[in-house]
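sry for the spam today, last one i promise. struct tokens for design, 381 residues
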């Protein structure tokens, strides 16, 4: 993080070009000091705010000069990706930049390297990072390497790529809508993660897993929307265009090449993301189940393995909100859903009960509070 809130905002805008209100909130929280600082920056002519279509904030010429004062390398980065301070201004450009800004803010908040903080792909081996240091690459950075003239059908709808000890995945910011995805492009881009990992990390896991994609949205209501699918109007449009959406990806692993995990843009979501970055799936299960419970998970329930056996019931870890896993559980246990158990966070109970098709009063669960998750994350080295 920067030395001051103003520096943090300048750094955010230099990496994402434009930012939304939610991005600023993700960066420092929705407090009076944040908006007072933004107002002062506007009065000083460092930033401009546009409210005509989307609420967006971006650097002015004076603001770009301020970036140059605090970090010349960051200034060069901004000028490169903003076409010398002339970024696209269509509604599509603004939406993409705002989506990026929200993710960049989250990453900065939880200590993930972004922008110039992470190494370039051609860095010497001695300059590469440890796998314990998570990094986030915007897709625009990879697109720039291949040149700007790329067909839209060849571009993934993901905003970026997250790489860490625990998860290596495409990251989509769905905000409050169901994104259409280009199946071929998603899988092709996912295939680039391993090459990118080899270029920037000096140590590598024995087994490299890129079988997941990470979806970020406003809250758990959006997770429910993704899981259920959209309105009839969206269905007709999808049928007409023969395109796939992130909803389809939950139920069909061939759409994006793996499972779909969901993280809300909340304090709790940031803690879930920290957990995913620092621990492998096997290590996450160790946090929520005893050794005896994990050792006993020798049964296979209708082609889906449970994570543990708790009080004689097949139990599943759902703290990490693996929507594809939830879909499999709902399918294979639709006739005996009341006989399984889940491990989750308390605020997840409502949406999970809806996805599994069972009332909370009939659902067997272990529900953890946010402070428990924070304690678990603080204990991870």
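last one done:
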């Amino acid at each position: 993080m920067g030395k001051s809130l103003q520096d943090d905002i300048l750094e955010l805008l230099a990496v994402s070009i434009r930012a939304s209100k939610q991005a600023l909130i993700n960066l420092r929280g929705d407090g009076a000091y944040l908006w007072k600082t933004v107002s002062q920056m506007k009065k000083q002519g460092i930033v401009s705010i546009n409210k005509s279509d989307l609420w967006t904030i971006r650097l002015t010429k004076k603001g770009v000069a301020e970036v140059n004062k605090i970090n010349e390398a960051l200034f060069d980065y901004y000028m490169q990706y903003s076409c010398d301070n002339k970024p696209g201004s269509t509604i599509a450009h603004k939406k993409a930049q705002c989506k990026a800004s929200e993710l960049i803010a989250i990453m900065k908040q939880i200590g993930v390297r972004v922008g110039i903080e992470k190494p370039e792909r051609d860095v010497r081996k001695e300059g590469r990072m440890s796998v314990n240091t998570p990094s986030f690459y915007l897709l625009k950075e990879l697109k720039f390497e291949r040149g700007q003239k790329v067909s839209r059908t060849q571009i993934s709808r993901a905003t970026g790529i997250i790489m860490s000890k625990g998860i290596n995945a495409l990251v989509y910011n769905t905000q409050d809508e169901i994104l259409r995805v280009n199946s071929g492009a998603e899988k092709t881009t996912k295939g680039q993660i391993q090459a990118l990992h080899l270029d920037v990390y000096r140590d590598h896991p024995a087994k490299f897993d890129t079988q997941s994609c990470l979806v970020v949205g406003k809250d758990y209501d959006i997770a429910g929307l993704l899981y259920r699918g959209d309105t009839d109007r969206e269905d007709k449009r999808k049928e007409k265009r023969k395109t796939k959406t992130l909803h389809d990806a939950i139920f069909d692993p061939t759409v994006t090449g793996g499972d779909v995990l969901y993280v809300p843009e909340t304090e709790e979501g940031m803690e879930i993301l920290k957990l995913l970055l620092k621990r492998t799936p096997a290590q996450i299960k160790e946090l929520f189940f005893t050794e005896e419970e994990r050792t006993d998970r020798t049964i296979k329930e209708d082609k889906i393995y449970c994570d543990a056996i708790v009080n004689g019931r097949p139990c599943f870890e759902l703290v990490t909100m693996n929507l594809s896993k939830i879909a499999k559980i709902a399918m294979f246990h639709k006739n005996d859903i009341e006989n399984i158990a889940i491990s989750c966070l308390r605020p997840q109970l409502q949406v999970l009960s809806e996805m599994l098709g069972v009332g909370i009063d009939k659902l067997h669960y272990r529900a953890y509070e946010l402070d428990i998750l924070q304690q678990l994350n603080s204990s991870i080295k």
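The chain is about 45% helix and 15% strand. ok im logging off now
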